[in-house]
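hiii, so i know i said id send this last week but things got crazy w the move. better late than never?? heres the sequnce for the chain we talked about at the cafe, plus the structure i predicted for it. fair warning i was half asleep when i ran it
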Amino acid sequence: FDHQIKPTLSGSIPLINADDAWNVSVNGLKINGTGESVCVIDTGVDYTHPALGGCNNNSFLNGSCAKVISGWDYGNDDADPFPGGSYSSVDHGTHVSGIVASMDGTYKGVAPGARIVALKVFSDAGVGSTSGLLSAIDWCVANKTIFNISVITMSLAVTDNSGNEIPYLTYCDINDTIAAKSSWAATQGIFVDA
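okay and structure toks below
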């Protein structure tokens, strides 16, 4: 049968029972992400988005945003991890951040109480490198205590010189620097989601 399909997002949170956990408390603390921070290693995060706190550039740079609280841009080597340029996936990091911690009334994130630390590892032209990625993981670990970082999430791929994804043949290639750095971050008490 050829059935009609439609894009949907609002039903995904109940499917994983995240909304059931939002009001649960353990030792007086809600388990909705409150008090935790997630390093989003990606294309940058639009901290002006209302679902992510609606901060402005000056507020972000002086560290006074409540939702997207800090970060670094390894793609352009500056303190502002705001997505930009003509790269087609500039909003990917913002989308990932929304899945994690959106405060939108309809499309609430899995952990709406969590804060975001934005680590941009792509230039505005969409170019990134493993050295930038490794530096971003280091940044998250080095700033773990300052920002209470408990999770690193990164959805990206390593490519060859032609832009083709290099597939991993096992779940943990022992000779891979990214796997090794991710494992090291896990030994430092950070959950790494790749």
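btw Residues 44 and 82 are 5 Å apart (CA to CA). thought thatd interest u
miss u guys!!
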